[in-house]
User: Which sequence fits this backbone?
């Protein structure tokens, strides 16, 4: 009898303790003030999966950097603020004389970062894989002082090996070479002979955000360094969607074809800001401080209305929601046309409503996504948004044959956003990302011409055919839609 009473007491205490944890976790989710769909999804996970749901939330639900990185981020802020103030002393490289469609974004950047549009840059859109590798290797071969890189994926083979060899030769002639690669995205490369050869040649390679199951107590487990950046001699810089991979040798077992990417090659004052972002990432990861680039010593004379730019860096430790705000501002600024390219389409409710509202006020809204996708979950979650987008007047196109991996937004053939950001919750709220904001009609025309080639190789999603798809597809889409806020 006493044993039965003791057992009942223990059971009651365990039950009470469990529900106290459930209540505490629920309050924590709600107080984070994330989008409603995000909150509801996590609450369902917590309630449907006892104990496991709570563990998943604390491992994956919050973008906490870890105490050590938070301290480093706080320590860096005065240095970055001082650098921005110093930049502003060189007023000739800044301008507020931007186009009407771009003005709201540059005003947002000014108030959030303290910097106006950066003038006098020379930029080039590169869309052919071999051309990108050729230009990058040529610039590496001509480097004289330093090369800094950060990439989500580095995959040996083909043209990636050519980059490896060029970096080794640069290091041997005295160029300081630093490379950061994401631990998850580049997990195979980190353990290859290629990585060993590069280190032996004096190249500093840092594995960023190391993946380790024991680290989830101190840092969110699936944080990703998703930037793609190259800086050469503090003068030339690159960013865009392409990792250091040769598409002929990358993920061919997924049967999605070769990845199609774009990069932007830049020189001029904008590279100064790129260098500051890289130095911040380096210190955040290693705790070691890099010298910030010398301001305008290398900048070409500003040209009126020539390639006015800004760089938007996002991720934990950076301005919260910044890239989300920039995208919303761009969408609401559009008067004639918006064209998106993204491999992963899992938008926030705010962006979904913004693009549908734009279409309903007469703006032509086009979204180009790949027909085949390397992520099964994202593919089906994306399809869950098709009906609302089509009903809202948005034109959806699916790119044939290969996996369209380019991430771009073109507004009114004037404002371009090119970088690493996908239209999904992970890019918008979690990953370390970077986007180049470009106010220039000439560059926009180059991007528009490229987008027309994408459209020529794409099939438009028919509203009538979409509504007549099999019932089982509806079921699968709604199932994966449940996970959309968590992808």
Assistant:
């Amino acid at each position: 009898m006493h044993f039965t009473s003791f057992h009942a007491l223990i059971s009651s205490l365990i039950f009470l303790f469990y529900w106290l944890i459930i209540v505490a976790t629920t309050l924590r989710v709600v107080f984070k003030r994330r989008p409603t769909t995000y909150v509801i999804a996590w609450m369902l996970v917590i309630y449907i999966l006892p104990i496991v749901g709570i563990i998943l939330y604390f491992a994956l639900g919050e973008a906490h950097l870890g105490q050590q990185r938070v301290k480093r981020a706080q320590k860096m802020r005065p240095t970055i603020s001082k650098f921005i103030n110093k930049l502003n002393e060189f007023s000739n490289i800044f301008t507020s004389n931007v186009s009407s469609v771009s003005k709201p974004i540059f005003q947002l950047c000014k108030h959030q970062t303290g910097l106006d549009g950066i003038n006098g840059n020379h930029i080039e859109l590169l869309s052919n894989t071999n051309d990108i590798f050729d230009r990058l290797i040529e610039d590496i071969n001509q480097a004289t002082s330093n090369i800094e890189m950060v990439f989500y994926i580095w995959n040996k083979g083909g043209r990636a090996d050519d980059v490896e060899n060029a970096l080794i030769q640069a290091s041997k002639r005295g160029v300081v070479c630093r490379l950061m690669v994401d631990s998850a995205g580049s997990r195979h490369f980190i353990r290859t002979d290629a990585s060993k050869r590069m280190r032996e040649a004096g190249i500093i390679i840092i594995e960023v955000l190391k993946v380790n199951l024991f680290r989830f107590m101190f840092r969110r487990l699936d944080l990703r360094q998703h930037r793609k950046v190259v800086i050469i001699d503090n003068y030339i810089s690159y960013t865009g969607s392409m990792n250091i991979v040769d598409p002929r040798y990358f993920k061919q077992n997924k049967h999605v074809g070769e990845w199609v990417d774009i990069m932007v090659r830049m020189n001029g004052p904008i590279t100064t800001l790129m260098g500051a972002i890289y130095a911040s990432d380096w210190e955040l990861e290693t705790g070691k401080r890099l010298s910030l680039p010398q301001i305008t010593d290398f900048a070409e004379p500003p040209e009126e209305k020539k390639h006015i730019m800004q760089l938007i860096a996002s991720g934990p430790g950076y301005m919260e929601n910044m890239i989300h705000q920039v995208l919303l501002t761009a969408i609401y600024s559009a008067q004639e046309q918006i064209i998106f390219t993204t491999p992963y389409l899992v938008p926030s409710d705010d962006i979904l409503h913004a693009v549908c509202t734009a279409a309903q006020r007469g703006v032509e809204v086009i979204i180009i996504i790949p027909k085949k996708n390397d992520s099964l979950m994202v593919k089906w979650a994306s399809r869950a948004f098709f009906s609302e987008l089509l009903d809202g007047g948005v034109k959806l196109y699916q790119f044939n044959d290969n996996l369209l991996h380019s991430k771009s937004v073109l507004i009114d053939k004037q404002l371009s956003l090119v970088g690493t950001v996908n239209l999904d919750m992970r890019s918008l709220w979690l990953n370390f990302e970077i986007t180049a904001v470009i106010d220039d009609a000439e560059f926009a025309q180059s991007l528009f011409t490229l987008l027309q080639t994408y459209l020529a190789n794409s099939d438009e999603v028919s509203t009538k055919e979409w509504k007549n798809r099999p019932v089982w597809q509806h079921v699968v889409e709604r199932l994966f839609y449940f996970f959309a806020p968590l992808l």
Remarks:
- The chain has three domains: 2-60, 67-95+117-306, 322-486.
- The chain has a mean pLDDT of 86.
- The longest helix spans residues 2-31.
- The domain at 322-486 is CATH 3.30.870.10 (Endonuclease; Chain A).
